[in-house]
Write the structure tokens for this entry.
Amino acid sequence: MTRPVSLIGAPTDIGAGARGASMGPEALRVAGLQAALEAHGLDVLDRGNLAGPPNPWQPPTDGYRHLPEVVAWNQAVHTAVHAELDAGRMPILLGGDHCLAIGSISAVARHCREAGKKLRVLWLDAHADFNTSVLTPSGNIHGMPVACLCGHGPQALIEIGGTVPAIAPKVVRQIGIRSVDPGEKRFVHQVGLEVFDMRYIDEMGMRHAMELALATMDANTHLHVSFDVDFLDPEIAPGVGTTIPGGPTYREAQLCMEMIADSGRLASLDIMELNPALDVRNKTAVLAVDLVESLFGKSTLMRDPERRR
């Protein structure tokens, strides 16, 4: 039996370098996310939008832009996501920029500790998001969430989940990466993050990358997917603040989502960095909804689940 689903809007671009991701939750609603999920037999409850401080649009202070506001938003996200998991519901966080994954994933990690579950995080993104205040060229905290979750960041952010670090690098699999700052690249290697970048996908194929990313999960694994829409090639998904050419095609992205669905382990989801201000007739939101449907079992053909593997 499928778990009931809760949509949680987080309308802020507090951690980003471009304004507009604050409109992402509404764009996903306009694109029919709730109806699309309900069409797959899911019980969907839209919890509306969380509230938080406005974006002051200030320069960085000590290597961080808008740190107090980022902390406030992530605390709100943490509380909301944890409450849904506690209630036995699957949270889908509608971003908002990707700094919000600190609150979301720290809540999932806390839930897993409390429930005695193993955690696996799939980070679908053009960027590794493993910057720190020392490494970052911009101070934008949406470039730092994975580092913060792994314990490398300001105290107020790394402590949100109640345990530092919230997660170990070994639980993360990054897919589609193609833009990493030089210092960040060294740090990623140093901590041993498992990264399936676009060169790997070009050489080995999306199927092989996903087989490895999903390997060793079992019935006690909670799978969290953090889907940054800039994971996709900007030719098909222009509505993001940081477009990086050379991302997965439509079919590669569909295969990625379908293989996650086949695993049967998906238990929480972020949809991040959708920026309607930079989109064309909401096409990126429509595509995101299409891909999320595939995460919940939509496929081109009817397939016998026993023969999918």
Observations:
- Strands lie at 5-10, 44-49, 90-95, 118-124, 172-177, 194-197, 221-228, 266-272.
